[in-house]
Amino acid sequence: METKCVFCQIASGEIKTELVASSEHCIAFNDIQPRQPVHILVVPREHFVDVSELALKSPEVMADLMALGAKVAAQQTHGSHRFTFNTGIEAGQSVFHAHGHITSVRAK
Ligand code: AMP
Ligand code: ZN
What is the pTM assigned to this prediction? Predict the structure, then answer.
């Protein structure tokens, strides 16, 4: 039997994860291996393999993800932050369920 991807399991509650924030279509939670003082993942509840598939197939969910990222960045950082999407294995993508990284050198 095929196992579901880790972010689908987090979105469904199968893997218990404390959420930082959530919206109609997306959830946000701390990265398990933070590489900056703030490192939060913003993830659509529905499975898309990467951000390109998400943007092309579901602009409404993409817009919701960008808005949740902006909200999380405003709540958790002093303003300066990065919102990044690794797309494809050679770009460093390791989880093949679309997600954005909010990273910042300074937490609020
Ligand atoms: P990427 O390398 O862009 O695909 O990002 C995947 C991110 O997911 C990495 O930064 C991992 O540390 C993070 N990650 C993997 N599994 C989990 C998990 N169960 N909970 C939180 N973050 C995770
Ligand atoms: Zn998934």
Answer: 0.97
- Nearest atom, ligand 1, residue 10 CA: 19
For ligand 1, what atom is nearest to the CA of residue 29? 21
Domain that holds residue 31: 6-104
Four-CA torsion 85, 87, 93, 98, nearest 10 degrees: 60
**Residue found by looking up tokens 């404390």 in the block:** 18
> Residue 30 belongs to a domain with what CATH number?
3.30.428.10
Count of the separate structural domains present in the chain? 1
The string of pLDDT tens digits covering residues 24-76 is 999 999 999 999 999 999 999 999 999 999 999 999 999 999 999 999 999 99
Name the residue at shortest CA distance from atom 15 of ligand 1: 32
Distance 15 CA to ligand 1 centre (A): 13
Residue 1 lies in a domain: no
